[in-house]
Amino acid sequence: MSSSGHSGATSHGGAQEASPYLELDRETWAALAKETRNPLTAEEIARLQGLGDSIDLREVEQVYLPLSRLLSLRVEAAGRLHREQEHFLGRDIPARTPFVIGLAGSVAVGKSTTARVLQQMLAHWPEHPNVALVTTDGFLYPNAELERRGLMQRKGFPESYDRRALLKFVVDIKSGKEEVEAPIYSHLVYDVLPDEKVTIKRPDIVIVEGLNVLQPARAREDGRTGLGLSDFFDFSVYVDAGTTCIQEWYVERFLRLRETAFRNPSSYFAKYASLTHEEAIAEGNRIWETINGPNLIENVLPTRSRATLVLRKDRDHSVRYVRLRKL
Q1: Alpha helices, DSSP H only, in the chain?
Q2: Domains in the chain, ordered, with CATH?
Q3: How far, rounded to the nearest angstrom, does the alpha carbon of residue 172 sit from its chain's CA centroid?
Q4: What is the pLDDT along the chain (327 residues), one digit of tens a residue?
Q5: Is residue 55 a contact partner of residue 65, using CB atoms and an 8 Å limit?
């Protein structure tokens, strides 16, 4: 990593390797928003962080404030391009379609916290106050359907999602539909809630957060390539960390859930509440090594290079450096 944070090349044994990314260390990245006011209080930030994730006022100001400013600039630039294109086409200028941000990363890496913080920060910019957040969990097949297909042990893998419904949702958003509905998922019952929807009405920005949102389009049976979700993203973020760190965070979160949500009799995972500390550690590692770890290596991590921006976390959950794709 370049010590200045401004190099577009990576050094390997003194040689310079060209890269499509600009890599910025934390200090350089933080300085980009030193004149920008943080709209969130410490109390608001505490409410936004997920179980086991660690984020504070300093992290928000040094990492997420520059990111929200960059995203706001991108939204404004997209608006200008929209107006110029409509003028070029000789058409009356309609309202532009929402700016869509894809946010990907492993289970337990903290992408949900990142999504919630970005949603709140972006909504404070007066140019785009209506910011919607949708997680792809709602587009998982219901458990009964996963059981029918023999996919319960592959929940979270690409084939466990109703990809057609998810793609239609994003296409409807980018088509400018007045209202778009998305299904709701409950982590308590570990299933999609039947007949419950969230309605999104003409947002300025939509954040789509999930494991596989950067997956490339699949080839059809006739050999043609279909559309991928990321074809409709205006910007994408990948939350990254070392796989060993993520596994540790997953097990730590599993232990916390055993002391909290798993004790709720309505929880799908209530059976884990009676495990001893040692048994819970073993079970958390087993689940990681058989499901979440393989999914990360096979499906999630390979999409990292498709992101516009990568946030690389350190062992303490803090973002150590940022990679931004060059224009």
Answers
A1: 26-31, 42-48, 57-59, 65-88, 111-123, 143-149, 163-174, 243-259, 277-287, 293-295
A2: 9-325 (3.40.50.300)
A3: 20
A4: 444 444 444 444 445 578 999 999 999 999 998 878 887 777 877 777 765 567 888 888 999 999 999 999 999 999 999 999 999 999 987 788 999 999 999 999 999 999 999 999 999 888 888 999 999 999 999 999 999 999 999 999 999 999 999 999 999 999 999 999 999 999 999 999 998 999 999 999 999 999 999 999 887 777 787 889 999 999 999 999 999 999 999 999 999 999 888 999 999 999 999 999 999 999 999 999 999 999 999 999 999 999 999 999 999 999 999 999 999
A5: no
Q: Whole-prediction pTM value?
A: 0.91
Match 């890496």 to its residue by tokens: 109
- Residues 206 and 200: beta-carbon distance below 8 Å: yes
Contact assessment for residue 166 and residue 214, using Cβ atoms and an 8 Å cutoff: no
What's the token pair of residue 180?
């778009």
Find tokens 């006022």 and name the residue.
57
Rounded Cα distance between 1 and 25, Å, is 8
Sheet of 21-25: strand order equals 21-25, 319-325, 309-313, 235-240, 99-105, 205-209, 131-135
Q: How far is CA 115 from the centre of its chain?
A: 6
